[in-house]
C-alpha cells in the first residue's frame, strides 16, 4: 500500500518541552484518515510538520515521497486548512480566488468558481463579514482548488455549529469522491469522523495507540459485560484495551480476531467513538499507574 505520510521517531521540541516525541506512523494513500486524541497529544504539531510549517527536532517525515515544503513541486502536492480556517477579513471572496491563482501553479479556477457559486457566496463580499461556516467553506475551496494530492485539515469544524459542520463535511466528502483525494482530518468531535473517515489513528501523548481501517478495527474490538473478573484471566489472544468494574460486574473492551466463546460474557459491538475513547482511557490509566 502506498504511504501518503510516513514518520519515524518524529519529534518537535519547543524550548525544553516536547510537543511531539518518538512518533512513528504510516498513513496510507486513498483514505480519509481521522486523527484523534486529547488536547496536547501532538495532533496539530504532527500536521504542521507534515505541511512543512514546522521543521522536526528529531526523526524523519516524508509526505508523498518527499520532504515537506522542500520545493514548489512538493508544496503543490499538499493542501492545508488550519484550525481557525484562516482567511483574510479585509479581502473579498474574489480576492481570495485571485490570490490562490497567483500562489498555486496548479490552480483550478473553474473548480473554485463553481464551488463558490454552489455555496451561494457573493464574490464581492468581504471574508470578514462571512459567517463561521462560510469562512470555513471558503478556506476549503482554496484548499481544493489547489488540486492537491493530499488535503490536511486541522480541526476545521471545531468552532462551527452543528448545521455548518454537517455542510462542511458533506462538501468535503463530495470533493473526495470527485477528485480522489487523500485526506487527513484531525478532530476532537469523534462523532463527525464516524460520517467521514474510513481510516483511524489515535494519538495520545505523541504515541500512536491504534491505527487501521475503520471497518476492520470495529470488527475486531468487542465490549464484554459479565460477572466481575480479573482481565488478566482472559485468553491470551484477547488484548485488553480498557476495563471497568463494579462490585459485581466487569465491562472490558478487548481486541481479538478470534470468536469469543465464553458464555458468561454478553458481547456487543463498539461505535468509532467508543473505540477511540477506550484507547484514550487506557492511556490515561497507564500514565496514572506510572505516576
TrEMBL record:
InterPro entries (UniProt xref): AAA+_ATPase, ABC_transporter-like_ATP-bd, P-loop_NTPase
Decide whether keyword Zinc-finger is in the record. Answer: no
Domain ABC transporter, by residue range, is 5-230
Q: Which residues cross the membrane?
A: none
Recorded hits in Gene3D superfamilies, A to Z, give: P-loop containing nucleotide triphosphate hydrolases
Q: Keywords in alphabetical order, please.
A: ATP-binding, Nucleotide-binding, Transport
List, in alphabetical order, the Gene Ontology terms for molecular function in this entry: ATP binding; ATP hydrolysis activity
Which family is it part of? Belongs to the ABC transporter superfamily.
What is the protein's given name? ABC transporter ATP-binding protein
